[in-house]
Each structure stands twice: as C-alpha cells, then as structure tokens.
Design goal:
The chain is built from 18 helices and no strands. Helix 2 packs antiparallel against helix 3 and helix 2 crosses helix 4. The radius of gyration is 29 Å and the shape is elongated.
Length: 425
C-alpha cells in the first residue's frame, strides 16, 4: 500500500513538472508569436503551440533518460535538426540570417528538461530572462548604438579585474603582521571600480535636463573633487547661478558619506552602529543647505553637467588604487605599532587630502583584527573632514567669493558635528 502511495505521489510530481515545462514553453512562444503576429498563418517556423510542445518534449525527454541515457541527447538532436531544416527552407524566401529564434527554441527544450529533472525555480527564472531578452531586441540594439568604444572597453576591464583576476589571488595575510591580504585588497579595488562605473553611467544617462541637483548627487559617486573644481570655475563665468553651483558641490560632497556606509556594510558590518550617527549627520548637514540653495533658485538656468572626459574605468587607476591601499595598510600597521591610536589619526588626516576611499577601506579592514572600532570610526571621520576641507579650498580658490562662503559654512558645520559625534560615540 505504501509503495502504491509513493508511486502516486511521484506520478503527481512528474505531472506537475511536465505542466510547468509546458507553461514555460508557452511563455516563450507567446513572446515569439507576438513578434511574428503580422505574418501569415503557416509562414512562421515556431509560434506559441510549437514552443509549448517543445518545452513539453524537453520534459518528456528528461523523464525518458531514466529509461535510457541516450533518450535526451537523441531527442535534442532531432529537435535541433528539424529546426535547422525549417530555418534553411525559410532562408531561401527571406534573407534573414538571424538565428535568435532557433536558439530560443532549443533553449525552450532545455528549460522543459530542467523543470522536470533539475529545479523548477531555475527553469522558470531562465525562461523569464530569455523571454525578456527576446522581447527587448530594439532596446538592446539601441543601447549598443549609444554605447561608445571607451565605455565598452571600461566594462570589459571591470569584468577582467572582477571575474578573471579576483579568483586567482590568494586569500591569506602576507607581509608585516599579515597586514596585506591580496584577495581582500583587490576585492576592495573591485568595489571602488564598480561604484565609479555606476556613477559614470548615472551621469551619462541622466542628461543635463535633470539639472545640478541630479548631476551633483551622482557625480559624488565618481569624483566630487572634479565636480567641485568644474563648478567653481563655472561660478566665475556665470555668477547668476553660483548658488545652484554651491548646491551641486554640497550634494556631490555629501554623497561621499553614504558611500562610506556602503564600504563599512560590505567589509565590516559590525562597524556600522558606530559609524551610522556621525556619518549620517555629516551628510545631512551638507544635504539640507544644498536642497535649500537649489529650492531658492530652481528656476534659474541650468548648467551643463561636468564633461565626462575620462573613461568610466581605467585599469591603471585600479592598479594605482590597489597600490595605495596596500601602502596605507602597511603604514597603518607600522604607525599602530609605533604610535598607537595617534599614528592612525595622523595617517587618516594625511590620506584624506587626496582620497577618502582608500583610507576608509583600510581602517574598516583593520578594525576587524588590529584596531578597535572607536579608533577606526574617528579615523574615517578625520579623513572625510580633511577631504572636504580641501574641497572648500578649491571652491574658494577657483570660484567666486560668494561660492566659497556658501560651500565653506556647511562644510565646517559638517566637520565639527562629525568629529563631536564620533568622539561621543
């Protein structure tokens, strides 16, 4: 009796999986049928019914593989040959060399087999992604037409340093005190590169019509220093919009603080509770006056976004960042041993002049083993404060006097509030 019940359950499960295979084929068939809906009946090679049956056939072939190991490959080969013959016959009438439909039909067969023999969720996910890709032919081709050569090159380089190089590096401490971990250093390089990459395309896609508010917010992901210098120079050319330019600078500088929280959340989540209050406050002190400046002059003429004159990712830049990160971690270990906490703060202040990302990632990493959380938090705050003070100097030196004042007051308030809260926390 138990054996009969077990067979009944197994049969029901197989029936359900075959039904899912049929539905997945129907899903892809609906998309294919919609694309070819204007063609006469019988002129289409594979529509809704064909894709649905091919999905079901894939599921049945997977079931038959339990009887013979040759069942699945032979049925798949039969489907592939039949499809090729049909596509070859159609090619004589229509000079269309695209094999996307053929690949979609063969994938439908595979999804049916996966639904029955492997995993329903995996088969459904693959089928949905395939349908989306097939349905967005125009959008994908349009994206390729808009893509520039140096942007494609940057994307491939990002994949190179992520998919190829990262897994090859040893995940173990090296050097003095085991301070250098090649895998973790390069993983941080990938993190920086990815954020800069996203920031670049956010600016590119957003367009100038979004104005300084959008530009300043997303430029902070890639280079708030470059934006500060660019807007400062523009303030001398058009003093009527210097308030809006100040808003853009403050937004770009404020974006640095959410970025710091992201680094901490990824590298050492235990540091977040101590960082959250001071970092959020420092960002808010910059965002509030920025939004006020923008609100008061939102009807003023908009300026062009900062020119994207560099690639979104340079491999040389990534390598230099990795070297800088390694040097900072070595110096941090040496200064910690020699001067204790005072050495960490000195390192944070000197590093913050040029870059906040490297020292932030270094201190966050060191807080896992070598320094306490309070020291890491105060060091990160010091680095961020020094970096923003440097931008105040750029705004005052290259921009108008009023621009310098509008930027300096919120920056100083942000600095003082962050240091005070970091000390208290």
């Amino acid at each position: 009796m138990d054996e009969v019940a077990s067979q009944f359950v197994t049969g029901n499960e197989s029936a359900i999986r075959l039904a899912v295979a049929l539905l997945l084929g129907t899903l892809i068939g609906i998309e294919r049928g919609w694309v070819a809906r204007s063609q006469a009946s019988g002129s289409r090679i594979a529509g809704v019914r064909t894709h649905a049956l091919v999905g079901l056939l894939g599921g049945l072939a997977a079931l038959l593989s339990a009887v013979s190991a040759w069942a699945f490959p032979l049925v798949f080969l039969a489907v592939a040959i039949t499809s090729l013959v049909a596509w070859r016959a159609q090619l004589e009438q229509h000079q269309d060399y695209s094999i996307t439909g053929l690949i979609g039909l063969l994938l439908t067969f595979c999804f049916g087999a996966i639904a029955v023999a492997v995993d329903l969720a995996l088969a459904a996910a693959c089928a949905v992604v395939t349908a989306v890709i097939l349905d967005n032919k125009r959008e994908i081709h349009g994206l390729l037409n808009k893509l520039q050569a140096h942007e494609l090159d940057a994307g491939l380089k990002l994949l190179l340093i992520t998919v190829v190089m990262l897994p090859l590096l040893p995940d173990q401490g090296m050097g003095p005190g085991g301070a250098l971990n090649p895998y973790e250093i390069w993983w941080m390089v990938v993190l920086i590169a990815a954020i800069s990459f996203v920031g670049y395309f956010a600016i590119r896609v957003g367009g100038t019509e979004k104005g300084i508010l959008f530009t300043g917010l997303f430029a902070g992901l890639s280079s708030s220093t470059a934006l500060t210098l660019h807007f400062a120079r523009q303030s001398r050319q058009n003093q009527k919009i210097e308030t809006l330019l100040a808003a853009g600078i403050l937004l770009a500088c404020g974006t640095m603080f959410p970025r710091i929280l992201i680094y901490a959340a990824v590298v050492n989540p235990g540091l977040l509770p101590r960082l959250l209050v001071p970092i959020t406050t420092m960002g808010a002190v910059l965002y509030v006056p920025a939004l006020y400046y923008w609100h008061t002059q939102r009807r003023s003429p908009k300026v062009d976004r900062p020119a994207l004159i560099q690639n979104p990712l340079e491999l040389r830049t990534a390598l230099l960042f990795g070297a800088l990160l390694g040097v900072i971690m070595l110096l941090g270990e040496w200064l910690r041993t020699w001067l204790g906490e005072a050495g960490i703060y000195l390192l944070a202040a000197s590093s913050g002049v040029a870059d906040v990302d490297a020292i932030t990632l270094s201190l966050t990493r060191m807080s896992l083993e070598r320094i306490d959380a309070a020291t890491a938090v105060l060091g990160i705050i010091i680095a961020a404060a020094v970096n923003n003070l440097m931008k105040v100097g750029l705004a005052a030196g290259f921009g108008t006097r009023h621009l310098g004042q509008r930027v300096a007051l919120p920056m100083i308030a942000s600095l003082l509030s962050g240091l005070a809260l970091a000390w208290l926390v």
